[in-house]
Amino acid sequence: MLENVINDIVRWLESQLQQTEGIKIDAIAHKSGYSKWHLQRIFKELKGCTLGQYVRRRRLHEAARSLREDNLPILDIALQYGFSSQATFTRIFKKHFNTTPAKFRENGHLPEFKAFLYCEEYIPEYKYCE
User: Fold this and answer.
1) Cβ atoms 65, 128 nearer than 8 A
2) What is the pLDDT of residues 67-81, one digit of tens each?
3) What value does the CA radius of gyration of the chain take, rounded to a whole number of Å?
4) Phi and psi dihedrals of 108, rounded to 5?
5) HEC-encoded secondary structure of 14-65
6) In the chain, at which end, N or C, are there fewer CB atoms within 10 A of the end residue's CB?
7) Residue 118 to residue 26: CA distance in whole angstroms
8) CA 22, CA 11: separation in Å to the nearest integer?
9) What is the pTM (predicted TM-score) of this model?
10) How would you classify residue 48: left for phi > 0, otherwise alpha for psi between -120 and 50, otherwise beta?
11) If pLDDT is split at 50, 70 and 90, which confidence band does 21 have?
12) By C-alpha distance, which of 115, 108, 119 is closest to 49?
């Protein structure tokens, strides 16, 4: 039953990735019917990461996809995926992909989706671009 709740939450989160106002844990907890503390605990137990880590990684993956597939300015992509500025987006993007959004757009490769969502701390052996 808990797994069904978490899967429902994940599906709902997927529909919210482009909401610029941010996804609040209180809203997610309300949707699930659990307290935010219990929800965080069961989410981490079942998915291996916190809700915040999951949402951040999903937004980064979708932003990376947009960088490769769309011709939108980097600032527009950053704002579309809920980052407060291009500088914030660039800093977080570089931490996860080891390159800037501009360089990734030129010659980056999207990581395998499941490898990118691996919810433990960032693993340096993964090379996302050449």
Assistant:
1) no
2) 999 999 999 999 988
3) 15
4) -80, 160
5) HHHCCCCCCCCHHHHHHHHCCCHHHHHHHHHHHHCCCHHHHHHHHHHHHHHH
6) N
7) 24
8) 16
9) 0.75
10) left
11) low
12) 119
